[in-house]
Amino acid sequence: MSLHRLYRGFSRLCGLAQGPLPKPGLRALLYHAVGTPLPGEPCGTSISAGLFARHIEHLDSLRNVFKFRHFAAPGSDSPCLALTFDDGYRDVLAAAAPLLAVRGIPFTMFVVSDFILRGAAPYLDEAGLKELARLSGARIGSHGKTHRPLTALGDAELREELAGSRKFLEDLLGLPVTSISYPYGSVDRRVRDAAQEAGYVLGGTSRYGLNLPGRDPLLLCRTEIVAWDEIEDLELKVKGRWDWYRFRHPDPAAQNR
Ligand SMILES: [Zn+2]
User: Fold this and answer.
1) I need a surface site. Which of 2, 24, 134, 162 has the fewest CB within 10 A?
2) How far is the CA of 77 from the centre of ligand 1 (A)?
3) How far apart are CA 144 and CA 129, in angstroms?
4) SS3 for 138?
5) Cβ distance 219 to 10 under 8 Å?
6) Contact, 82 vs 72, CB < 8 A?
7) pLDDT one digit per residue (tens) for the chain, 257 residues
C-alpha cells in the first residue's frame, strides 16, 4: 500500500509533464475479481464490490471524453475504453455484470478452460459461464487451459494451452472464441505467432499503455486496476499517467522477428 502511494505521487507528477490528454486509441482496463476475498493474495487482485461500483460510476461519467468499446483493435476516431476481466471469477457474473449491463458498458471476460471444467469456487462453472456469455455486452475469451506462463512451455504444450482452451470454450458456448489474454502477461513473438496459428485475432498483454492505431491486435496493452485503486488512481490510469509502470513488462511488439 505504501508503495502504491509512492507510485500514485509519481503518476501525478507524470500528469503534469504529459500535457493535454487523452489521445485517440484504445485503452483496455484489466480487472480480476470483484468482491471475493482472496486471502494472502498480495497483488490486489480482488477489488471490493463497493469500490468497483464507484469505478463504474466514474467511468460512465467520462462518456463525453471516452467511448466504450469491446476489446478490439484500436481505431483512430476517438479515445476509447474497453473493460476486461481475467481468470473467470464467479463474482464478475454476480456483482460486476449487472452494473455494466445497466449502463450498457461492454466487457470481455477471459477464462481458464480447466478452471471452468472443474467448476470449483471462486471460478465460474460451465453453467455460470454460459449465463455470462448470454448477457448483452459480454464476450468470452481464453486465458489458457491451465493458467501457466506460456513463454516457458514447449511447442506441444503451448499448442494445447492455446488451441485446446479455444476448442473447449467454443464447444461449450457454441460461439467463436477469437481473443486471448496471456496468463501473467507472459508473451513473446513465438507465443504471439502460436496464438495466431491457433485461430486468435486479438491478444491482451499485461503491459500498461494506450493502443494506438496500427498496434498489433495480438499484442494489445492493458492497464491493470488493483484493489487499492481509488478514484484518483483510476482517473490517472485511464488518462495514461501510470503508463511509466510498463517497465515491468517489456514490449513483445518491439522484439525482432
Ligand atoms: Zn490470470
Assistant:
1) 2
2) 31
3) 15
4) strand
5) no
6) yes
7) 678 788 887 777 776 666 656 778 999 999 999 999 887 777 889 999 999 999 999 999 999 999 999 999 998 778 999 999 999 999 999 999 999 999 999 999 999 999 999 999 999 999 999 999 999 899 999 999 999 999 999 999 999 999 999 999 999 999 999 999 999 999 999 999 999 999 999 999 999 999 999 999 999 999 999 999 999 999 999 999 889 888 788 888 887 66
Ordered by start, the domain boundaries in the chain are 21-239
Peptide bond into 213 cis (omega under 30): no
CA of 144 to the centre of ligand 1 (A): 9
137: cell is: 455486452
Topology classification of domain 21-239? TIM Barrel (3.20.20)
With a CB cutoff of 8 Å and minimum separation 6, the contacts of 236 are 8, 11, 12, 15, 242
The rounded Å distance from CA 123 to ligand 1 centre is: 12
CA of 11 to the centre of ligand 1 (A): 25
- Are the CB atoms for 206 and 185 separated by under 8 Å? yes
Measure 231 CA to ligand 1 centroid, in angstroms: 24
Q: Hey, how many other C-beta atoms are within 10 angstroms of the C-beta on 254?
A: 7
Q: Taking the complete model, does pTM exceed 0.85, yes or no?
A: yes
Are 47 and 31 spatial neighbours (Cβ–Cβ below 8 Å)?
Answer: yes
Residues contacting 148, CB < 8 A, separation 6+: 161, 183
The answer to whether 215 and 253 are in contact (CB under 8 A) is yes
